[in-house]
Specification:
Structural class: alpha+beta
Number of helices: 4
Strand order of the largest sheet: 4-3-2-1-5
Radius of gyration: 19 Å
Helix content: 55-70%
Order of helices and strands: HEEEEHHEH
Shape: elongated
Length: about 160
């Protein structure tokens, strides 16, 4: 199970999406200080917190859990391929939602204090794109395994 390369890909996807959920996405520097944006909240420079839209947090959580569950479906490769396709759709949605979410807060902070404004994008924003690529690699490896099993059964 874990010795298969697709299992390692899916485990890496799980780790990347967990990092996306836990680590900051953006940091906004204004006259008041630095505000930090996470997938589930925005922490203002004053220390107060504002919750993020729940659908983004829900999407990232599902995109974190699904590849881990997919690893244990190794006996049903066709279902595993379908779960990888669902994961790719979730990751594409996550990328779009993160882009819209970051753009919204970027323009919000820029309009609030345009004179002294700086934004630093974190490396965490790239994690869903890398996870999408790794999920695609995993689905290809699962498909190759399925073709190998079918070929060996045909030879018998």
């Amino acid at each position: 199970m874990i010795q298969r390369i697709q299992s390692l890909y899916l485990l890496a996807v799980t780790i990347l999406m967990a990092i996306t959920f836990a680590a900051p996405l953006l940091a906004f520097g204004t006259t008041e200080g630095v505000s930090t944006l996470y997938t589930y909240r925005l922490i203002h420079a004053a220390g107060n917190s504002e919750t993020a839209p729940y659908y983004l947090s829900f999407l990232v959580i599902i995109a974190t859990i699904l590849p881990f569950i997919t690893i244990f479906g190794y006996k049903k490769r066709l279902i595993q391929i379908r779960w990888c396709v669902v994961e790719m759709v979730l990751l594409a949605g996550t990328i779009v939602m993160l882009g819209l979410y970051c753009y919204r807060f970027y323009t919000l902070f820029q309009e609030a204090s345009p004179a002294i404004f700086s934004a630093s994008f974190k490396l965490t924003l790239c994690c869903p794109a890398v996870a999408l690529f790794l999920t695609w690699l995993a689905s290809r490896a699962i498909f190759r395994d399925e073709m190998l099993v079918r070929d060996t059964e045909r030879i018998r």
